[in-house]
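User: Can you write out an input/output pair for a complex, sequences first and structure second?

Assistant: Here is one pair. Inputs:
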Amino acid sequence: MTQSDVARYTWGGDEFLFAEIAEGMSLEANFISNSIANALEMKELEGIVDICPANASLLIRFNPDLLASGELERTVRKLEQEVRATTSRTLETRIVEIPVWYNDPYTNETGARFREGYHQRPDGNDLDYAAEVNGLADAAEFIKRHHESPWLVSMVGFVAGLPFLFQLVDREHQLEVPKYLSPRTDTPALTIGHGGCFSCIYSVRGAGGYQMFGVAAAPIFDPSQSLEDFEDFMVFFKPGDIVKFKPVDEAEYFRIRAEVEAGTFTYRQAPIVFDVGAALADPDGYKVSLVEALNGI
Amino acid sequence: MAFEILESGLSTTVQDQGRIGYYRYGIPQGGSMDQYSASLGNRLVGNTPAEAVLECTYIGPKIVTKTAAVIAVTGAPVDVLVNGTPVPQFERIQLEAGDELRFGVIQGGTKYFIAVHGGIDVPEVLGSRSTYPIGAIGGVNGRALAAGDIVPVGAGVENGLPLLERIAEDDRPVFSKVVEVRVMLGLYDHNLSENGLDSLLNSEWTLTPVADRMGLRYSGPGVQWKEREQPFGAGQDPSNIVDAGYAVGSIQIPGGTQPIILHRDAVSGGGYAMVATVISADMDLVARCAPGTKTRFISVTMEQALEARSENAARITRIWS
């Protein structure tokens, strides 16, 4: 195992316990964080306010009037040991297809407004820059790399319902792009962003520092809960979801938008068992079997 | 019962004790920035502490009440005018149908609160009436008040007014231009150099005008980070980490220049190292600071933080008993 044997535990004031599973991002660290979060949730301890699994760490809010900090730390450390001792690394989850209009006019227009003083590269757009820093031929090549392998939702947060996405490829094939030099004050809703090794989908319009590659066609945060996929909750994504981006052209994008407006849009998705060991051992072969789950839906 | 909003003020929002349990989805806790002040208002008008109030920022709204109403204005010092006549803060006020409530110039702090008997009665979203404008949920249509809004007021309990009509001077919040904010070091404080940690704790920091419900930014000497090889996925700057959950009240220092205290509407996570967290007992104190406030960060232990928390709770219990 490449991880250190035990997480680093530290306090965020008197109401937050923070456990850093690993300093660097990895599938393994993310799996451990989510597994501890799930195990803690199942315990239904009085005094736990919120359990927030993140990319390679875990943040727990508690009420110290109801649950002593020492007791909480002991409980989480024990769960961590149990999770690390488990040899099975599988997760019952789902794969979801997200239609994206790459290189769209909305993010390009926004990108053009935030160049001087914001961006590393005055010429071209964010895709041209991302292709260049990853040593790829052009934007088209980068787009292909972005959608041909699926992504894991490694964290939900920043703003309401925003998924952080970690691509299921080996380390050498991870797409890494620096964030903007200074954050933009505007990002179109549903922008596909990328910073460091993470992609994201901006759930709402607002500030942001990630590079912009395209725009998703359907909502992922729906406070009105008018679409079927949001019947139970206004936030679509959960940590552990697998995302397969599907490139769409302008005509397809607007066809989907019309379905969203009419309230008839539903995501193509299928239940899967995600096996971390298999994904790490043979990323290329494993991605094929993951994506096959979407066929025939 | 209802209030009609003639003028919105700078940013007037419906707030309560907050939306708890959805932070894992990126939905912040929200709630009145100065919980103590909001609680005093609810106490005076015979509500429970959970009732929603209007939080006003610098410039308050102009309101006409459609029916008789019992209100109290607490929080930052400001002139309160009913039909143009000054009335006191921290005291219960009876309004008649058609009365106009407006505000003069704020004299300290940034936020004051209008509590009304029965509470502001907008629908609860995820267990709270607090406004979260970024997610467009809570409050009035998920946004700050606008002119023309009709804000519903709850019926309240009949004969539900307490004997207490006025908050004693000693129990009122203090709005100072010089504060000491107690913090617990932790999270990623080990990424600061010795010199950087010394700067954080032994410098005077000045609150800048870049301060709102999401966060408060301070100017000062800056801090130094340790030289290190950045871990995979963290980003190149030494103030970057692999994106993680942010504790409410945590202090991050992007680029090592200006510390930012994350407050009740902050983003729930991101890639900047947090180096300390304001203790729960001092979050209201931070919310009371106006730009220009000279601030020192005082390092305390968990035991001291819990002691301060108990003292705060005891004070609130006394006022509510």
